[in-house]
Amino acid sequence: MPHLCLHRVGVGPDSAAVLLIAAGDNPDRLVDEASFAALCGVSPVEQSSGKTQRRCLNRGGNRQANAALYRIVQTRIRRDERTQKYLERRTAEGMPKREIIRCPKRYGAREFYRHIQPRAANQAPSAA
Q1: Which range is least confidently modeled, 19-28, 80-89, 111-120?
Q2: Under 8 Å between Cβ of 5 and 68
Q3: Which DSSP symbol is given to 126?
Q4: How does strand 45-46 pair with strand 55-56?
Q5: Cα separation of 81 and 62, whole Å?
Q6: Alpha-carbon distance values, 123 to 28, 43, 98 (Å)
Q7: What DSSP element (H or E) covers 56?
Q8: Three-state DSSP class for residue 14
């Protein structure tokens, strides 16, 4: 299964293996891509106070999977033109760098989940 993801920018064998291990270790928890993002610790967490509403990074989840997604994003920032344009646009909007990096990490988790989704669906217990 990792060979499906290795053609993506920034996804190497180590990062793919860490993400596959995180997904394979918890097959019952992966109901949708949001649950995979929460498992990796890249789902946004509401942190509001009074009239100020914002989202912050999730500090929970599998820290190794989170680090793998961080490495993927860092590589994409250096080598992927779309990610570079996204970074420039968000920086011009005044977003902090942590918030800018959080969004591509979430996107990377969503993208990776799409590759492992058929495997997760095939492992579901049958009602025979």
Answers
A1: 111-120
A2: no
A3: P
A4: antiparallel
A5: 29
A6: 9, 24, 36
A7: strand 55-56
A8: helix
At 118, the pLDDT band (50, 70, 90 cuts) reads: low
Mean pLDDT of the chain: 81
Close Cβ partners of 93 (under 8 Å, ≥ 6 residues apart): none
Rounded distance, CA 44 to CA 17, Å?
24
User: Residues 45, 55: contact at Cβ < 8 Å?
Assistant: yes
Query: What single letter denotes the amino acid at residue 72?
Result: I
Phi, psi of 56, rounded to the nearest 5 degrees: -125, 175
Q: Quick one: tokens of 41?
A: 């610790």
Token duo for residue 13:
């064998």
81's enclosing H/E stretch is helix 81-92
Residue 56 corresponds to which tokens in the numbers above?
A: 């912050």
50 is written with which tokens?
């009074």
| Longest Cα–Cα distance in the chain | 56
